[in-house]
Design brief:
With 363 residues, this protein is α/β, with parallel strands linked by helices. 28% of the residues lie in helices and 29% in strands. It folds into two domains: 174 residues, Medium-chain alcohol dehydrogenases, catalytic domain (Quinone Oxidoreductase, Chain A, domain 1, Alpha-Beta Complex); 140 residues, NAD(P)-binding Rossmann-like Domain (Rossmann fold), CATH 3.40.50.720. It is built from eight helices and 17 strands. Strands 3-5-6-9-8-7 form a six-stranded antiparallel beta barrel. Helix 2 crosses helix 3. The longest helix is centred in the middle third of the chain and has 26 residues. The protein is globular, with a radius of gyration of 21 Å.
Length: 363
Amino acid sequence: MKSTDFIVARHNLQDCKFIEARLPDANALADETLLIKVDRFAFTANNITYAALGDQLKYWQLFPAPENFGIIPVWGFGEVIASRHPSIETGERLFGYFPMATHLVIEAADVSKRGLRDAAAHRQGVAPVYNAYARVGGDPAYVGRGGDYQALLRPLFMLSFLVDDFLAENDFFGAARVLLSSASSKTAFGLAHLLHTQRPSIRVTGLTSAANVEFVRSLGCYDEIVTYDRVTSLPPDSPVAFVDMAGNSELRANLHRHFGEQMRYSGQIGLTHRSLLTNEPELPGARPTWFFAPDQMRKRAKEWGPGGIEQRFGAAWSDFAPTLAGRLAVVEGRGLAAVKSVYLDTHNGHIRPDQGHILSLWD
């Protein structure tokens, strides 16, 4: 039996292709092992960030690929088509981190009514969230379009939730204004929603391209919208916090030089524009640092205790999810050609911000 895998060159993400990889026979699976059919998955600009940071944050080790190539992780759904675990039956539906492939073998561990963990040795060097799978067969929130929104936005909204929590915990570093680059991105949208609805004293400024201004305005959660060519028109005389989804060195330098010491926080979250200098110069204001969500998650798990994160995040998601249907159109694509096309369009920045792509390698 074989899996069809979509692989990309680690150091040239434009170079991509499909390969076939051998799978163990369903009748010869090891004890506790599951064979999963990867049914459908979301693909967003955040997956390009996973690829761009694949070596740095160990994303490439999750799903082994030929030398110098990698398989990009995606959030989606899989169906158990063979099981050697006594508590998991064929036909079960799982939600979690999958490869861009037709199949995945999971070494099931820590199995409970709610989920399980992949205990494969090569997957243990990453944050635990990336190895966890939810058992969602009986959960109506994961059915139909609701499931698509879960795959498209729930993992990104968790990042938004953790950034919001981090900023609030630090009193926004003394800033009353938060600048969000790539304001049309799904993670920025989620963060803007949280700031707008829960932090009324904070002014939320969306930075975006001229082409995306109307869409960003339609989201209704930014106090003001500024195009990239006009960022120096912002008043520089009060403290700001900058949350950078774009990963553009020139934009970051312009903002730091404009605000100077009033730039109180500069957090790098994403790489939607992927225009980074190899050796960036020292900049005035707060030193740019990467925000690593699992660190904040581990910290809050200790402080809030069992179920604390889930309870708070669940409440935030329940407030956010009903707003999505009118703001984001789900576009489905099936088959190898569709997957490759959406991947390249996303990599090259050609995806409309008001669309979310749900893909499958199965025709």
